[in-house]
Amino acid sequence: xxxxxxxxxxxxxxxxxxxxxxxxMLDVNVQTSLLPQSAHAAEQGWRxxxxxxxxxxxxxxxxxxxxxxxxxxxxVRDPDNPSSIVSCLRQSRENARAVRGALTTEVWETHNAxxxxxQNKLRSRLLDEDPSQFFExxxxxxxxxxxxxxxxxxxxxAFHFIRLGTFLERADNTARILDVxxxxxxxxxxxDPEAEEEARHDxxxxxxxxxxxxxxxxxxxVYRDVITPERxxxxxxxxxxxPRSLLACMEEVSSNLAQVRNDxxxxxxxxxxxxxxxxxxxxxxxxxxxxxxxxLTQFLERIYEVGNRISRDFLVPxxx
Length: 320
Fold this sequence. Notes:
mainly alpha, 320 residues
């Protein structure tokens, strides 16, 4: 496969997944902002959400004051924000258009229809009147894209590059959500009985984290008990049967990378294999005792490195 084609497929999938992840985070923040809380707490919630995408500085530079309306405008409509939903879905569609010959008709039509329908959704003011319904639509279109890809495409190199992009982006997002939500919580949070008891009763806080990754029902099914930070971290990091966990994502990255290996990719496969093995054989209490923030910071650095290595080995070379 030509590196240019692989590059378009890889980024088509990453941008689709990024749009969905942005919709998930915004939806959770909209829902939690309706709960009784101080104005300062509400503002901190929006700041934390922008921090996940490393966009807080860009937002402050453009808007100054932090309001929910401006955050939604910045993260949904702003064409100058490369991580906005509009930007992501536009880039996803443009990458799909560039490689229409490598996609089935159904996959191309799904991406094209998503972009066209997005314009109608924004003109209808659905975002202003019912933001949660708008975010559900974004998630649905991402689910539809993945389903059509799995259901209609040959399981060849094109398919595997799409899957690589999807799960690399998902791993990055899950790690960012965990890092921001747990940031500042050192091992004392998990070792001090009083702090642990306080966390146990903060039902809505931990529920919001789980809902942002469609993990609330899964948590209830797996643990059948009160929501605790230790178990939230374990579910979103070390459970292979949790679709958005770090381990599940790295299993997919590793297996799809093996399907497209070439003469230059052996080091990248070893690098990814070590990340996968570390997650597979780790225990959550060991990670928490050594510092969750440090672990996730290192994981995000390595995910960035994986992306660079894949670009170097398979895709269009990075430019300075």
